[in-house]
Structure prediction request, 319 residues.
Amino acid sequence: MRNIQWDAVGDRLYETGVDRGVHYLKQTDGSYKQGVAWNGLSNVSENPSGAEPSPIYADNIKYLNLMSAEEFGATVEAYTYPDQFAECDGSKALTPGVLAGQQIRKIFGMAYRTKIGNDVDGEEYGYKLHLIYGALASPSEKSYQTVNDSPEAISFSWEVSTTAVEVSGMKPTATLTIDSTKVSAAKLAELEAILYGVDEVEGRMPLPDEVLSIMTADAPTAVALSSSTPTDEATDVAIDSVVVLTFNNVIVAEQVSMVSGEGDPVAGTKAFDATNKILTFTPDAVLTNGTDYIVTVSGVVDEHGQALATEAVNFTTIA
Prediction:
């Protein structure tokens, strides 16, 4: 029997679509932050150039080929674009709602997905996550026409050139591609939590070395509530106590709340320590003697994008 098999079930792969576009502004320190959704993204055509051979002849033969440098470019098409892209398209606000054109164009980064399908799962088989660094949009034509009996939405288009960024142990690059079918789901989720943001933490695009460290790092420890003060089911708790929750990982989001046994909310303030692992809840007023209280630990997400299942800490104050 031959070793090579053609068109086996599940191996008939294809790529389609483009979605989850995100725009990032390049900062003065070289990082890419302020991630915002790029709605209306309709097409990204990747246009690499260069890498052309220049033949060298010697001894009456073709001696070798010298390859020119390779560059990465793209054509981006969309029906709309985020407000912050205006500065990348050469516009600057004179006052809210008033833009001046022909200004300095800012460098940006972007992320988007393409879907991977197969003959079994269709488009749900997986996806590729594309990251583009050092992008600079060239001036582009914008064509406006009257509404008629065959109306069409205006489609914007930009030619994008790039400047590569450093990658340890490799040549600089302006693009990374991550295949969801070949990387750890947990590590991909961690990367996407950084790219898309979590609750109040804004999205940012990590540089290639950080992406590599995420994908090659040992799996993160599952987020957990390590301890609480008071402890669960504690009794004779002082009425002037504060609630201290200690987690094993760095926490980036939480929705911890406290109520009495009768369901009355307890107002107070919450604050993390410098490590973002210890959360202290300080009630605005002393608690009531001989009363049951419930601290609901919910909405907790760590820096790896891992969510903690809702837990409750119950205690009773001193009579």
Residues 185-196 form the longest helix (12 residues). The chain has two helices and 25 strands.
